[in-house]
Write a structure and sequence with these properties.
Helix content: 40-55%
Number of helices: 10
Structural class: alpha/beta
Oligomer: single chain
Largest sheet: 7 strands, parallel
CATH architecture of the domain at 2-126 and 133-168 and 212-233: 3-Layer(aba) Sandwich
Number of strands: 13
CATH class of the domain at 2-126 and 133-168 and 212-233: Alpha Beta
Radius of gyration: 19 Å
């Protein structure tokens, strides 16, 4: 099978590419390298420096004729989405539409889309499943949810199959140290520099943290399973930000107290996604425990910081 991965030089995308190559699939990577790094792309994958919003995308499909598309390329900065909603929509909505048009035109069999827990908004239950009413609180959440409708409608009008994967909070190796990034990568970097991590609010807010390797595995599984399904990719386990700091202190043999900052407007208090249907339909389950995932991420940050400082 030939699989085209958008954002394949990025954090999650590069892990997906590695797992596909390990399964001896043909892989084509499309990335504009705005945040991705060419060095992350597996050497056996074909690489195209191309923006998903560009008309040049069609030439890639005409040349490669992929059997499946795994769409990871996105604008992921929530604050940027609020400051520049037009750019956010251009990348996340228009970019996805260009991909879908190419997928239909060149008879792609399966389209796998990276959506987000941000589409749900404020949860009405402690652990929420895919039937929860979507009500995004940010422009980012809107721009990740809108393509889900286009995917469903265009699939109904063609032979294009799809799986939509709504990610919880993804962390792990290759996540960017600079920029908004994730709370785990940011806290580790701060604490290794002996800088108190900044917590917005009282730290009792909870998140569902899932390792990037498990997210990649869900995407690969969706090539075979999950026909026209919308599925959460998560651990179904909630962890408070205070407990995260405590755990990181223990693992790194540190005693750094966090600094508490004013709560940010629009931040969701609790976020935890049910993965029951995903386990059943994709025949998948998370393999990386939180302790192991944090250990791997700590070692990654140590190495990345030593390269930067060196």
């Amino acid at each position: 099978m030939k699989v085209l991965v958008t954002g394949g030089a990025g954090f999650i995308g590069s892990h997906i590419v590695d797992q596909l190559v390990a399964q001896q699939q043909q892989v084509v990577v499309v990335d504009n390298l705005s945040t991705g790094k060419k060095s992350r792309v597996h050497p056996s994958a074909a690489f195209y420096l191309c923006d998903i919003t560009s008309p040049e995308l069609q030439a890639v499909f005409a040349q490669e004729k992929p059997d499946a598309v795994i769409h990871q390329a996105a604008q992921i900065d929530v604050r940027h989405s609020m400051a520049s909603p037009l750019h956010d929509a251009m990348v996340n909505i228009i970019g996805t539409l260009r991909l879908l048009e190419c997928a239909v035109r060149y008879q792609v069999q399966k389209f796998i889309y990276a959506s987000s827990a941000a589409i749900y908004g404020v949860p009405s239950a402690a652990v929420i499943d895919e039937t929860h009413q979507p009500l995004p609180l940010s422009c980012y959440g809107i721009s990740k949810f809108t393509p889900e409708h286009y995917i469903r409608v265009l699939s109904e009008q063609s032979s294009l199959d799809y799986t939509i994967l709504r990610y919880a909070n993804v962390y792990g190796e290759r996540q960017e140290l600079a920029g908004e990034g994730g709370v785990i990568i940011r806290f580790i970097q701060n604490m290794l520099q002996n800088t108190p991590p900044g917590i917005y609010g009282d730290g009792q807010q909870t998140r569902d943290f899932i390792h990037v390797g498990d997210v990649a595995a869900a995407n690969v599984a969706a090539l075979r399973y999950g026909t026209r399904e919308v599925l959460n990719v998560s651990t179904s386990q909630a962890l408070s930000i205070n407990d995260l700091v405590t755990l990181l202190n223990e693992m790194m043999s540190l005693h750094i107290e966090p600094v508490y900052l004013p709560a940010r407007e629009g931040d969701i208090r609790h976020s935890c996604l049910s993965n029951d249907r995903t386990r059943e339909i994709l025949q998948w389950e998370p393999q990386v425990t939180l302790h192991r995932g944090l250990h791997q991420t700590i070692e990654y940050v140590r190495s990345a910081m030593s390269i930067v400082s060196g």
